[in-house]
Amino acid sequence: MANKAIFEDKRILITGGTGSLGKTLVRRLLEAKNGAPKKIIVFSRDEGKQHAMRMEYLNAASATDEVIYNNFNRMIEFRVGDVRDVNSLTPALRNADIVINAAALKQVPTCEYFPFEAVRTNVEGAHNIVSIIRNHNLPVETVVGISTDKACKPVNVMGMTKSLQERVLLCGNLDCPQTRFITVRYGNVLASRGSVIPLFHHQIKNGGPVTITHEDMTRFLLSLDDAVDIVFEAITSAKAGEMYIPRAPTSKIVDVAKALIGTRRIETVVTGIRPGEKLHEIMISDEEAHRTSVRGNYYVIAPILPELMNGEPLPAPALTAEYSSEHDTLSELQTFALLKKHKLLIEDNSDFDEGRKEMLR
């Protein structure tokens, strides 16, 4: 479990801080269960989302131009900027002890059509963080890169750029030995912006049809709080260059759709796999399995660069093959239970199946 004081009096910079993960990180940091931060810096290029967050945390009933005043003196500080832009990123990094790099272009089809835009955010953004820390000799303690299962054996642009981000941050440990660069890699985050569950909700509420790209498609499923738990655990326990992987449940997407539809008379339509989409996701590849150990509730991949191992031998591998969403999938009932646990079932879905309801009590 994460150390209860890891964030005590720390200045924490969250790039992409107005996204689904960023907002959950801010909420969890403010709970101060792992220590009370001195400052939380929300860095993003969307002034509208920043304004909405600011209003929420100021408990302001109505907006005025003055709400931005004293921004830099408040515990939650908002900075408009882009990880692509060194000039806006540098002053944000100057005041950070811990950096969580959640800024990303993450929509798979969008990245397929605009690949270099994905490179600029997902790769160049990470490179900028490393370069600024190195060039200005900044006393940043830890940088956490947020990666994805799509970075493992990537077949799409989003995965390719995230895989390169992992390697850029890994090499940051050589360029900036005073800073610990670590990464976390996880799967689909339930109900995050742009994910499949909000799409299914929208389609169901509009009477269908619900679109499924392939009947055999599987995915790892985590909640936003699960994702934050991984980040906090990595900050607590990871050594330089290590990558943390959740031991997460997997499900068929068709079972997710069935659970959400319930007894409603809504059609499902198979539309075919989208550009860059995999049938099954892989969280740890065959090639990474021999460098993978178990630490608590997580898999940990040791760095591929020998310089970061400090002569330590690899522990006995925890896996003998790749870690794929294809294996050990939840049953339809278990998928229903998972969605119910995270309060993702649509209203009036309680009559999904009386027998299943009884089993879930």
In short:
The protein is of the alpha/beta class. The protein has twelve helices and 16 strands. It has a single domain (11-360), classed as Rossmann fold.
What does it look like?
This protein has 361 residues and is of the alpha/beta class. The protein has one domain (11-360): 3-Layer(aba) Sandwich (Rossmann fold), CATH 3.40.50.720. It has 12 helices and 16 strands. The protein has helices at residues 20-31, 47-58, 86-94, 108-113, 115-135, 157-175, 196-205, 224-237, 253-261, 286-289, 332-341, 354-360; strands spanning 11-15, 39-44, 76-80, 98-101, 142-148, 180-186, 188-189, 210-212, 218-222, 243-246, 250-252, 268-270, 282-284, 292-295, 298-301, 323-324. The protein has a 9-stranded mixed β-sheet, sandwiched between helices. The two termini are 29 Å apart.
Q: What would the principal axes of the Cα set say about the shape?
A: globular
Tell me the count of domains.
1
Sketch the topology as an H/E string, one letter per element.
EHEHEHEHHEHEEHEEHEEHEEHEEEHH
**CATH architecture level-2 label:** 3-Layer(aba) Sandwich
CATH superfamily: NAD(P)-binding Rossmann-like Domain
CATH class annotation: Alpha Beta
Share in helix: 25-40%
Strand order of the largest sheet: 3-2-1-4-5-6-10-15-14
Report the average pLDDT across residues: 91
Q: List unreliable stretches of 5+ residues.
A: 349-361
Can you tell me the CATH topology? Rossmann fold
Gyration radius from CA atoms, angstroms: 21 Å
Proportion in β-strands: 15-25%
Please identify the structural class as seen in this structure.
alpha/beta
Counting DSSP E segments of at least 2 residues, the number of strands comes to 16
Largest sheet: 9 strands, mixed
- The end-to-end span amounts to 29 Å
